[in-house]
User: Fold this.
Amino acid sequence: MGTRLRYEKMIKEAFPSIHRVRVHSSGTFTVTVYAEDEYHNLSQKMITDLTIFLNEEGQAHLIHQIKPFNATLSDGVIEIDDPPEHIQVIALNGGLNQRGLVDALNAAFPFLHLQLAELHKGTLKIWIPSGTILSSAERTLLEQYLAEITPLGITVEII
Assistant:
């Protein structure tokens, strides 16, 4: 399973010269890697090396794009805080099937009793039982956790 955190860790380990990296799923089956060295540059050699690496080590179903780190601003990719430890462990260890994703979310939000609705055409739909009321902060947190533990290139919809 290729989560954002797992991809970022994989890239940092393979390329010690990369100072900052941000991986962002920018649509169904599309991933953008934003990177720079310690001088805030992204050389053509680094782009070529990253492209080769992602073609060999990345998820086969994903289209990879590589951009300079400062393009996160113009692309509207927001800075995000590290998720809680238990979400990081899930994201880095991977191996979750659809049921595992829902179980992990239920562990983080035990009061929701989430259920998998379906995975169809690259969209994972999660069902929240009727009558369950989420504050906007809880819904945002749930969406952030979902984004961290679902494989890159899959969109998530809470219904």
Summary: The first strand starts at residue 18 and ends at 27. Helices lie at 4-14, 44-57, 71-74, 85-93, 98-108, 136-149. The mean pLDDT is 85. The chain has six helices and six strands.
